Amino acid sequence: MKRSKVYLMYSHVEGIRRNYPYWPSTFGSCAANNCTNSARGGGLCAVCHEKKLAKYVGADHAKRYHDSVKVEHAAYLDMKDAIEVID
């Protein structure tokens, strides 16, 4: 069965998100050839997902999404640290 472009786009959106977990997680080598990044669960790293996402939405949109995930993840970690300080 052939997957729709929207489904494929979404799989890479989720792949980027998956590489920024909120809880402890295992990371291994990225599954892509010639990639030296680490990836959650040994799948594709966020950078490789971004490159694949760019094929569907363009490099600018893919980078903007990836950057937004990084910002959101950093904000979450800051809030988590704030809770620990308040306690």
Explain how this protein is built:
With 87 residues, this protein is mainly alpha-helical. It has one domain. Helix content is 62%, strand content 7%. The chain has three helices and two strands, in the order αββαα. The protein has helices at 5-18, 46-57, 59-86, and strands at residues 27-29, 38-40. Strands 1-2 form a two-stranded antiparallel sheet. Helix 1 packs antiparallel against helix 2 and helix 2 crosses helix 3 (59-86). The model has no long low-confidence stretch (mean pLDDT 93).
Set down the secondary structure blueprint:
Layout (H helix, E strand, L loop, with lengths): L4 H14 L8 E3 L8 E3 L5 H12 L1 H28 L1
Antiparallel strand pairs: 1-2
The largest sheet is:
2 strands, antiparallel
Number of strands: 2
Rg (C-alpha, Å): 15 Å
Proportion in β-strands: 5-15%
Briefly say what this structure is:
The protein is mainly alpha-helical and 87 residues long. The chain contains three helices and two strands; from the N terminus they run H-E-E-H-H.
Give the tags.
2 strands; globular; mainly alpha; two-stranded antiparallel ribbon; 87 residues
